[in-house]
Every structure is written in structure tokens, then in C-alpha cells.
């Protein structure tokens, strides 16, 4: 590629300098014709031979030709060097560098809606599992006012055991704070406001001292079964019909 470009540069340099040489030669010839009479009188009165005029004209043409050739060569070398340097710089820029991280794609309104629906489906799926294993929704929706406390107590025990079994099967829970409830605890500076909620007379800056009212819960493992694409997440428990 570089050789081809250099040859083209040389061709155009020769063409344009040939044109320039013709123009200069034409002007020089006219100037010499203008002074021909003066030169003839000068040589007639001098001791030089008659061929001296043609010798001077020959020297003029040779000098002009050499100057044009030198200028053309210098222009060619300069242009070729400049062009090669330009091509080299372009090649360096074209080399693959470090891959730039693609710009973060902003979620569209439809993406946000789909994400919200997926979160809702997961939450409802957990509720359906607790209903299936411990009939939690049935218990919460039941009107307990007609029943005695002894009857409610027996039902609650069964529901609590079934729901606890289902919850421990899919989720592992750990206490946020290891101390026992009712103990005095100290909240250091820089505590996680999402993990510890302060109540009561909260003034000043930490550290704070107070009584632990609830240890809190933190999920350390979550392994919910996948939700079937054909399953409607809004159906917590299907209706049951016994065919006789």
C-alpha cells in the first residue's frame, strides 16, 4: 500500500514540476530573446569566441534542469515521509485497545414492570408454599371468635409446626444480634441502620446503650423452588373439588 502511494506521489511530482519547468523555460526564453541584441553586441566587442553565447545558454538550461530535479526529489522525499508517518499513526490508532465497558442500559418502563411482576410472583410463591404445607392463609382468614382459646391453641400449634417446617426447608434464618432478648446491648458508631432499628429516646450520637427487644432475622440461605411458567402466581391455593 505504501509503495503504491509513493509511486503515485512521484508521478504527480514529475508531472507538476514538468509543467513548472516548461513555464520557467518559456519565460527564460522570452527574456533571453529580449536581450539578444545586447548580448550580440557584447560578444562582438569582446575577445570571446562566437560559440560562447550558446555555451552560456546551455549552462542556463542545465542549471534549471538540475534545480527542478533537486526540488522535485526533496518534495517527493518530504511527502513520502509525511505520508508514511500518517499511515503508521493511523495503524496504531486502529489497533484494538482495552475494551471499553458498555454504557449501562437504563431500564425502560416495560422492564421495570416485568421486574416488579417477578418480585411479586416470588413473594406470592412463598405464601403459596406456606399455605400448602401449613394452611397458613386458611388460618389467617378464619374467624376465630366462635372458638374457645383451648381450641385455638391446639390449631395454632399444628399450623406453627407445619409452617416452620416449610420455612426451614427453603430459607435459613439467623439472628441479627446474638444476645438474648431483654439483655443490655451497646450500639457502636457506624452501625447498619437497615439491620438495627432504634426506638425510644434516641438523642445524640452513638454509641448507644439500650435493651434488646427483638434479635431480628437475617436470611443466610434462600433456595425457593422455581415457579412454573404455566402456573399463575396469583393463585395461592387452588380450589379443591371432590368428585363423588
Automatic annotation (TrEMBL):
Keywords: Membrane, Transmembrane, Transmembrane helix. Residues 120-242 form the DUF2760 domain. InterPro entries: DUF2760. The chain crosses the membrane at residues 9-27, 58-77. This is DUF2760 domain-containing protein. It comes from uncultured Desulfobacterium sp.
Amino acid at each position: 500500500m505504501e509503495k503504491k502511494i509513493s509511486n503515485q506521489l512521484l508521478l504527480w511530482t514529475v508531472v507538476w514540476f514538468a509543467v513548472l519547468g516548461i513555464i520557467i523555460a518559456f519565460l527564460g526564453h522570452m527574456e533571453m530573446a529580449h536581450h539578444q541584441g545586447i548580448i550580440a553586441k557584447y560578444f562582438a566587442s569582446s575577445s570571446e569566441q562566437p560559440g560562447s553565447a550558446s555555451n552560456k545558454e546551455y549552462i542556463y538550461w542545465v542549471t534549471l534542469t538540475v534545480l527542478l530535479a533537486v526540488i522535485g526529489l526533496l518534495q517527493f522525499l518530504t511527502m513520502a515521509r509525511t505520508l508514511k508517518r500518517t499511515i503508521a499513526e493511523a495503524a496504531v490508532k486502529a489497533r484494538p485497545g482495552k475494551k471499553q465497558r458498555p454504557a449501562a442500559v437504563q431500564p425502560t418502563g416495560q422492564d421495570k414492570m416485568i421486574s416488579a411482576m417477578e418480585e411479586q410472583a416470588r413473594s406470592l410463591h412463598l405464601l403459596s408454599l406456606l399455605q400448602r404445607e401449613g394452611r397458613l392463609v386458611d388460618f389467617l382468614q378464619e374467624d376465630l371468635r366462635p372458638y374457645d382459646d383451648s381450641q385455638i391453641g391446639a390449631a395454632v400449634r399444628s399450623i406453627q409446626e407445619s409452617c416452620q417446617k416449610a420455612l426451614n426447608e427453603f430459607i435459613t434464618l439467623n439472628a441479627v444480634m446474638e444476645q438474648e432478648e431483654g439483655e443490655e446491648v451497646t450500639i457502636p458508631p457506624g452501625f447498619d441502620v437497615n439491620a438495627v432499628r432504634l426506638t425510644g429516646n434516641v438523642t445524640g450520637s452513638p454509641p448507644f446503650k439500650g435493651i434488646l427487644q427483638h434479635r431480628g432475622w437475617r436470611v443466610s440461605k434462600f433456595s425457593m423452588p422455581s415457579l412454573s411458567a404455566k402456573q399463575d402466581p396469583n393463585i395461592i391455593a387452588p380450589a379443591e373439588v371432590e368428585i363423588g
